[in-house]
């Protein structure tokens, strides 16, 4: 009897591990996100997101864990510290995408291999410039199940940009004033 118990337990452990091994860290709950290309079943509160687009900053601002980012985001000085431990990912390196084991991929609508990328993980694409910066941030928030908070975050972004514009306009006025009063 004992000789049969150990192999049975070993097989049971392997089966349980194999079944649970493919489950993503987001808990398995999903919702339907209405993307520009149609409905996409995405995980609620994804925990392993790959950004193959210029939207990495949006994801980080929303507190989304990014495990892979495009080379442009990786090389951006403003993201250097936050992305130092994040892997570089690209639409052409499918093996790397598989290795990163994302539960969601955010990409541009013009990305190569979208059909294959969509087999790796749910993939939401956006067309660059189709929405203004505020509405794009809100849309990305909806895709990563931050929909309730993203309009508030969009409002914060709008206020920050407004402050920046006012500061820039003030600087431009001072610069024009200097040029006018410069001795010739």
Explain the overall architecture.
The protein is α/β, with parallel strands linked by helices. The N and C termini lie far apart (104 Å). The chain is built from 7 helices and 7 strands; from the N terminus they run αβββαβαβαβαβαα. It has a single domain (25-167), classed as Nitrogenase molybdenum iron protein domain (Rossmann fold, 3-Layer(aba) Sandwich). 47% of the residues lie in helices and 17% in strands. It has helices at 2-21, 56-61, 71-75, 94-100, 114-120, 133-143, 150-180, and strands spanning 30-35, 38-43, 49-52, 66-69, 87-88, 104-108, 123-126. The strands form 2 sheets. A 5-stranded parallel beta sheet has the order 5-4-3-6-7. Strands 1-2 form a two-stranded antiparallel sheet.
List keywords for this structure.
single chain; alpha/beta; Rossmann fold; five-stranded parallel sheet; two-stranded antiparallel ribbon; 47% helix
Strand order of the largest sheet: 5-4-3-6-7
Q: How many strands, what sense, and barrel or not for the largest sheet?
A: 5 strands, parallel
The string of secondary-structure elements, in order, is HEEEHEHEHEHEHH
CATH superfamily: Nitrogenase molybdenum iron protein domain
The CATH class name reads Alpha Beta
The proportion of strand residues reads 15-25%
**What is the CA-CA span between the terminal residues?**
104 Å
Number of domains: 1
Strand tally is: 7
Give the helix/strand class: alpha/beta
Named at the architecture level, the CATH assignment is 3-Layer(aba) Sandwich
**Any low-confidence stretches, pLDDT <50, length ≥5?**
4-25
The Cα radius of gyration reads: 23 Å
What is the CATH topology?
A: Rossmann fold
Number of helices: 7
Name the average pLDDT: 78
Helix percent band? 40-55%
Spatial shape: elongated
């Amino acid at each position: 009897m004992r000789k049969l118990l150990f192999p049975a337990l070993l097989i049971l452990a392997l089966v349980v591990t194999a079944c649970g091994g493919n489950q993503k860290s987001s808990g398995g709950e999903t919702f339907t996100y209405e993307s520009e290309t149609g409905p996409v079943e995405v995980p609620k509160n994804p925990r392993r997101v790959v950004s193959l687009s210029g939207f990495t900053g949006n994801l980080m601002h929303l507190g989304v864990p990014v495990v892979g980012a495009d080379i442009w985001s990786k090389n951006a000085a403003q993201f250097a510290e936050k992305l130092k431990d994040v892997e570089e990912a690209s639409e052409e390196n499918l093996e790397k995408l598989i290795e990163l084991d994302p539960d969601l991929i955010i990409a541009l609508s013009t990305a190569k291999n979208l059909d294959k990328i969509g087999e790796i993980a749910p993939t939401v694409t956006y067309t660059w410039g189709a929405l203004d910066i505020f509405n794009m941030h809100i849309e990305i928030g909806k895709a990563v199940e931050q929909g309730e908070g993203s309009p508030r975050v969009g409002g914060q972004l709008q206020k920050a940009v407004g402050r920046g514009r006012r500061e820039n306009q003030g600087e431009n006025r001072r610069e024009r004033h200097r040029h006018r009063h410069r001795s010739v």
